[in-house]
Amino acid sequence: MRVLDVGNGQRWSNGPLWSEYLALGWNVSLYSFAYSGSVCDNGMYNSIAREDRVPSLKDQLEAYYNLDLDLKPQETVFAFWFGIHDVSEMAKRRGRKEPDYREIADCIGQQLRASRKVFLVDKYLVFNVPPLGHMPYYKDNEISANKSQAAADVNNALEKDVGNLNKHHHALEMDYVDVQSLVRDMAVDPAVFGFGNSNDSFLDTCYEDAQCELKEDDYIWWDETHFTTAFHKTIAKSIIEAESYTTKVTLTAEMEEQLVAVGSKFHSKTYAAPPFKGIVDEKAKQYDIEKSRPIELQQPPLEDDAADFETLLETSTDNGHAYAGLAIFIMLIVGIIVWIKFPNLSLFAWIRNVCNGGSKHRGKFTPVRNDEEDA
Fold this sequence. Notes:
alpha/beta, five-stranded parallel sheet, globular, two-stranded parallel ribbon, signal
């Protein structure tokens, strides 16, 4: 599994991140090119000084391309989680009353398309932006409502784009992970999810308080802007239990011990990501050019074949009613067979399944609750 923007060896939490838990559950190797504080494209923001820039999504994609790891596309899942820092930087823009935060989703969408064309991957996890107004950093700030609305604007555009991509590319399996709804649900009733505090950060309220009754895993927020490992585990469980790409498994304590083992394949190496030079974008353009070229017939149709085809057309016109009746009869027989074999499958569901090429429907996850034994 290949991951973008969850740490790249930087564990801004009190333990493993969601990607490590997910790699463990799927029993796959983790390649993380992510950096905390990254944005989709550094070039979008003049507010980021050149010396303060961390590798962006575009930088990370090119770093992955340059390594040429030779991973099999059919066995690789790309994961994108961007937008939090983009919202912060876009708010610093001057010269307009309110930024158009949909530009962030546009940037992410462009890179989703580029990665698919260059790396020929069809499996994706796309995370949305959590409700920023629930972050301890913004919680008591007068701009918290604006931040939450900005996150919602990004998410609405991103969800629509993911839906359109899935709709127009039947081979694509792109799942939209709804972190925003998960955090909001936890804020309403954290105990249902096995948490004790969903509003404050552990480091600010309990870290140095000997009288504190709550523990690290009782919190959603580790510091003012980052999640605890317990919340990261909840995200991974929601994906695993949705049976996305693999069958459902249960993360046991014995399994989790592998996350701290030296050389574990579930903990990514650290990868450098220098500023991109446009290689991925150029490769994506070459892909579009190749796809737009007309396909030449290797052998023109024979004259006799063409004449036979014209005769067939004339005959089919004369006997149109007969063919129509035959087609209806065949469809009726097929429908009866399907109904007998799949009695619980509605006609509309069957038609939709056929029209979609029989592919599994992809969409956003419904947040799952922690089991009591895992809380």
